[in-house]
Automatic annotation (TrEMBL):
Organism from which the protein derives: Cardamine amara subsp. amara
Protein name per Swiss-Prot or TrEMBL: Protein kinase domain-containing protein
InterPro entries for the chain: Kinase-like_dom_sf, Prot_kinase_dom
Top-level taxon in the UniProt lineage: Eukaryota
Domain Protein kinase residue range list: 5-95
SUPFAM superfamilies: Protein kinase-like (PK-like) (SSF56112)
Length: 95
């Protein structure tokens, strides 16, 4: 079973997507955890993918935000528009 995902609040917006704080909760309600989620529209997929590739090459480097998954995810936003998502560790006081 997969954890449930709940959008908590927006974190920011950039040229090729927006960031939000997402809470994941296990099916039994235990051990909730938070990630920053970047969402981009289909027309910006190549930029998101390139960012993902760069961050993947920098995996385990100190002071570099890490991706949380091994690939991008595809979904549909609240308006029925296809989006691509990249989950990253949440740096609460980062910039």
């Amino acid at each position: 079973m997969f954890p449930s995902m709940e959008f908590m609040k927006p974190l920011g917006k950039g040229s090729y997507g927006s960031y939000g704080l997402v809470k994941f909760t296990n099916p039994d309600g235990s051990n909730p955890y938070y990630h920053a989620m970047k969402s981009s529209y289909a027309q910006d997929f190549e930029y998101l993918f390139k960012e993902f590739q760069i961050l993947s090459k920098l995996r385990n480097c100190p002071r570099i935000v890490q991706t949380s998954w091994t690939s991008l995810s595809r979904g549909v936003n609240d308006y029925g528009i296809r989006v691509y998502r990249m989950s990253m560790e949440y740096a609460a006081s980062g910039s």
